From TrEMBL:
Organism: Streptomyces albipurpureus
Protein's name according to its UniProt entry: Helix-turn-helix domain-containing protein
Entry superkingdom: Bacteria
Lineage: Bacteria, Bacillati, Actinomycetota, Actinomycetes, Kitasatosporales
Pfam families referenced in this protein's UniProt entry, alphabetically: DUF5753 (PF19054), HTH_31 (PF13560)
InterPro entries linked: DUF5753 (IPR043917), Lambda_DNA-bd_dom_sf (IPR010982)
Residues annotated as domain DUF5753: 117-296
């Protein structure tokens, strides 16, 4: 299992760090030299703190510190404007983070225990989501009843109230994505998920009908991966690859959920491994037209 890390508070702050690192290296400066310069200006920082900024591990980045670094690195006007543009405005909240919707804040204890609140914030910013699911229907395509039964099965330790809350959050996610930045959802679903009865045949029938309708929605592409494909990299488990607006030049992020927590991966080698897996499986799955036919046949089976 990869090292578990909190997700970056903002994809844009990760880009700030990458830009600053490039400028520093271009100028032939070390982190120690940069930190010493900032300290001489009365700014509280050190080489370790600057390293965390460059690696996107800081939830907040002081504007005056970034300004000092840009001046030290002799950034031109364009670089200066673009880097400062990635930072929250001066009158933003103290944390510099987006304000979570009231529903997410209301269930913060549950979401943060799984580190899932960060996932929701990033998901809402993404322009493309590539989701592979091995055993269940993707959360963004689940019906309310299917979601309730799936969450209950995954988390038998939760109270009815907690399950209700997570169901509400899941449905809110669907509305947020529909109205947000995401323009593409590529859902790759292992065929076994279509045969696994979650809840009851009636629940499954409604769920598959929802999938069929979603498959014809603009921006949504659904493909079923036949079990006849045999062994494949996706057997290691489900994952989501998030792509963000080009304006941020932010690298893709991979998100993995476990029984007790969730993990994000943003190192190039890690992201490349999951991207290669998705790219390898996508053409082996049924094309959209054959997927729709397969869904129609499966719906009839749950009618019988």
């Amino acid at each position: 299992m990869p090292e578990q890390k909190q997700a970056p508070g903002s994809v844009a702050l990760g880009e700030v760090g990458r830009r600053l690192e490039r400028l520093r290296l271009r100028g032939g400066l070390t982190l120690v030299a940069a930190a010493t310069h900032c300290q001489e200006l009365g700014l509280r920082t050190d080489a370790s703190a600057l390293s965390r900024i460059e690696n996107g591990r800081r939830r907040t980045v002081p504007r005056d510190l970034v300004t000092a670094l840009l001046d030290l690195y002799q950034a031109d006007k364009r670089d200066h404007t673009e880097v400062m543009g990635f930072l929250p405005p001066p009158d933003a909240t103290a944390t510099g983070r987006r304000q979570r919707p009231p529903l997410w804040r209301r269930h913060g204890d549950l979401l943060d225990a799984m580190k899932f609140g960060n996932f929701l914030e990033l998901e809402a910013q993404a322009t493309r989501l590539r989701n592979f699911e091995l055993a269940v229907i993707p959360g963004l395509l689940q019906t309310a009843e299917y979601a309730r039964h799936a969450i209950t099965a995954f988390r038998p330790d939760l109270t009815v109230e907690a399950i209700d809350g997570l169901c509400d959050v899941r449905l809110h996610r669907q509305r947020t994505i529909a109205a947000g930045a995401a323009r593409e959802l590529h859902a790759l679903i292992d065929e076994s998920a279509l045969h696994r009865t979650i809840g009851s045949p009636a629940v499954m029938r409604e769920q598959l009908e929802r999938l069929l309708a979603a498959s014809e929605s603009p921006g949504t592409t659904i493909r079923v991966l036949p079990t006849a494909v045999g062994g494949h990299p996706g057997l290691a488990g489900p994952f989501v690859i998030m792509t963000f607006p080009e304006a941020t030049h932010a690298r893709d992020i991979v998100w993995i959920e476990t029984l007790s927590t969730s993990v994000y991966l943003d190192q190039e080698t890690e992201v490349a491994r999951y991207t290669d897996a998705f790219t390898h499986l996508w053409p082996r799955a049924l094309d959209p037209a054959r997927t729709r036919n397969h869904l129609k046949n499966q719906i009839q089976e749950f009618h019988s």
